[in-house]
Amino acid sequence: MKSSIIFIIMSFVFLLVGCNESSQETANSPEDALRMIEVENGEREINVFGTHKVNEDLVLIVFRGVMNDEDIWLADVHKEDGQWIAKEIVQMNGPFEGNGEIQTLIINDDFGYEVGYIESNVPITENLNVVEIDGIEDWKIWIKQSK
Questions:
Q1: 15, 111, 127, 137: most buried, per Cβ within 10 A?
Q2: The predicted structure's pLDDT at residue 52
Q3: 100-137 as b/e: b if 16+ CB within 10 A
């Protein structure tokens, strides 16, 4: 009788652990991974301005809304073990004064991309993916494949 009760209790514990693990949130898309970083700021809505697919396992997303409604961010979202994870998030609030019309902010040789700012009046070359930000007319964010 005692062994039956212990067996039932152990089965119940394993069932609870299994249910808990399966109920954890998973990110099946880069956008899901982005939403998961706003756990502490759930009342805010993320506004995506643009994405750039670097390869099958890496997407860059330009957005606003996680920390506050003003700051602009670039998320480096990787796919690992079938799930998307926001790895690095960089603030992208605008170019630095006196550093030219086109500025490079990020060079990632490992994954073959570059990111920076471009003033709005500068002609855009074919190799740049340009992301415009609502409410900002002076500059844009550019992303370029370097491989």
A1: 111
A2: 95
A3: eebbebeebeeeebbbbbbeeeeeeeeebbebebeeee
